[in-house]
Amino acid sequence: MSDPDPIYVTKPHMPPLEEFLPYLESIWESGWLTNGGPFHQELETALAERLGVEHLSLFANGTIALVTALQTLRITGEVITTPYSFVATAHSLLWNGITPVFVDVEPGSCNLDPRKIEEAITPRTSAILPVHCYGTPCDVEAIQAIADTYGLKVIYDAAHAFGVKHKGESLLRQGDLSMLSFHATKVFTTFEGGALVCPDAKTKQRVDFLKNFGHSGEVTVVAPGINGKMTEIQAAFGLLQLRHLDEAIVRRAAIDATYRELLGGVPGLTFLSQDEGTVGNFAYFPVFVGEGYPLSRDALHARLRERGIIGRRYFYPLIAEFPMYRGLPSADLGNLPVAKAISRSVLCLPIYPDLDLATVDRIAALVAAP
Ligand SMILES: *Cc1c(COP(=O)(O)O)cnc(C)c1O
């Protein structure tokens, strides 16, 4: 018998191919491949409705969306951000010639600790760039209060927070702009893709100019924009994904509940708690390996791998540890003890709609008795 296929931390749900063919036929017939075609327009409307926001602009990917968000608000100087994220968060700052200033995270949420933001503010600070890590909402009220006091903009990296609600409202309405990623590994995907959620029509218009080379008309260019446009194929796939999304999230929720039940009593293992005021999306299932567990985090990671289960150490190493960041004063790990400890203990377990619960049982049994 050959080994079964490896089980990765995530896998996109692919709807039946027949359902995609009519979209393709329509694109072939019209020959409208990109530049705000009919599917692009339809997806912007459908997503705004689904997410409970008014204005949203689609992008080729989340990173270009984040780079463009910083351009849209003319952010310069220094920006306060988290070291505990995917590296694109800080890279978007370097691509704008902005200096990242890393501030430590909170142990309970893995998100930027608002109590540590103020001491990092300098005359050069122009914005805060927090991440809703694993879809857990940041302390948005505390962050906004600091931004209001010091006159800072807030741009959320909401790559993990598709559909997340905070106190009955879309989390994506927080801050001045929120970025979404629709990469293949995310809860909602368009192969590659992303979006900026904008507070008003004027801001969306500026974002739309910037993602299309700065064109505001046939012969007018108002800014050194970039090419961040989403294609019709991507938008069509997004429309198809949307049809299956509710079911996909129900399945994710069942996997989350199964892990919590089967791993709840395991000594030395902890998870993030579920906040009652939050409607989550079950994008990730991180476990934190601590004292009392028989293996180190890395030994557990290796043990699962031997059995074909590929967990991921999101986020290890910290962004602050990479060569282009580690020389910054704020990147000193002595300044980031919580983020450092979390990055050394985290392991994300497989969670995706097509993962059957019998396999989840098997993974949990292995983790419970490695
Ligand atoms: C996926 C991700 C990004 C980048 O998005 P892309 O669409 O892959 O460019 C940025 N930040 C975080 C936190 C992410 O998880």
Secondary structure blueprint with pairings:
Layout: H1 17-30, H2 38-51, E1 55-59, H3 62-72, E2 78-81, H4 88-94, E3 99-102, E4 125-129, H5 140-150, E5 153-157, E6 165-166, E7 169-170, E8 177-181, E9 194-198, H6 201-210, E10 215-217, E11 220-221, H7 232-263, E12 269-271, E13 278-279, E14 285-289, H8 297-306, H9 337-345, E15 346-349, H10 357-368
Parallel strand pairs: 2-3, 2-4, 4-5, 5-8
Antiparallel strand pairs: 1-9, 6-7, 6-13, 8-9, 10-11, 12-14, 14-15
Helix pairs in contact: 1-7, 2-7, 3-4, 3-6, 7-10
Description of the molecule:
Helices cover 35% and strands 15% of the residues. It starts with 16 loop residues before the first helix and ends with a helix. It is built from ten helices and 15 strands. The protein has two domains: 17-240, Aspartate Aminotransferase, domain 2 (3-Layer(aba) Sandwich); 243-368, Aspartate Aminotransferase, domain 1. By secondary structure, the protein is of the alpha/beta class. The strands form four sheets. Strands 1-9-8-5-4-2-3 form a seven-stranded mixed sheet, sandwiched between helices. Bound molecules: pyridoxal-5'-phosphate (PLP).
Strand content: 15-25%
CATH homologous superfamily of the largest domain, by name? Type I PLP-dependent aspartate aminotransferase-like (Major domain)
CATH architecture grouping of the largest domain: 3-Layer(aba) Sandwich
The small molecules bound here are:
pyridoxal-5'-phosphate
Radius of gyration: 21 Å
What is the makeup of the main sheet? 7 strands, mixed
The assigned structural class equals: alpha/beta
Shape: globular
Helical content (DSSP H or I, runs of 4+): 25-40%
How many separate domains make up the residues?
2
Number of helices: 10
